[in-house]
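Q: My collaborator sent me two sequences in one message, no labels, and asked for predicted structures for both. Can we handle them in order? The first one she listed is below.
A: Yes, handling them in the order given. First sequence, followed by its structure tokens:
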Amino acid sequence: QVCVVFSEELQRWCRAIIQSVRHHLGRYELRCFLVDYAEYSFVERDNIRVPVGTFNKLPYRAKKCSLYCTKPLTLHLDFCATTAKIGPAKKWDTAAIHHFQNLLK
């Protein structure tokens, strides 16, 4: 369900989908996916509202997607044999993500 949250980082109200809840420093924070900015953000419980009217019918500006047929790779090091090979990985390395973002810029 889409709700409206106030993002402290963006200093504005955004549409969001709640992902999880955590208790932090005596208050509840919700991890939300901001559907118009394709970002994750933690929002305090008091900064969440129910959308009204036609606000729900506006199309999202950002969509979650993935690269077609592109699988993550990582460098596998074998210290005993002193070799390094590139092979499949379960998820993308942080360095690979940063490199890809720099290519997009």
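Q: And the one she listed second?
A: Here it is, processed independently of the first:
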Amino acid sequence: ESKVSEGGLNVTLTIRLLMHGKVRGSLQKGETVKKMREESGARINISEGNCPERIVTITGPTDAIFKAFAMIAYKFEEDITNSMSNSTATSKPPVTLRLVVPASQCGSLIGKGGSKIKEIRESTGAQVQVAGDMLPNSTERAVTISGTPDAIIQCVKQICVVMLE
């Protein structure tokens, strides 16, 4: 089932993000998500429920996932820019995404003595933090990525590579 594409092995991957209510609002508008699904070719699902955070599940071939992530990162940047248009802040806060990663894969993501995560930070320019504790009632940890949309996209690509390995 795996086809080789320009990005190497084209396997189906699932990446999940945690989103706060106010951030999610911009994705909640059906049109935005519909457009992202169509343009990226990835399946994007937002969990239901009244909890403060929802899980956004993105599934598809790696290239579709990267496209979907790029669209989400740029959408968040746009939201930050829009929310700042009437604020007095001078510096723009970075875009921040929180991935949900199985704890079993966090070791390879961090690398021996933190070498892998350091390499990802240096090569992408994004800030990456792996939570020390698991998420409540879960075998997964949150991985927080922040930076420019481009840095985030590069960072997600490298995290996917690690997870695929």
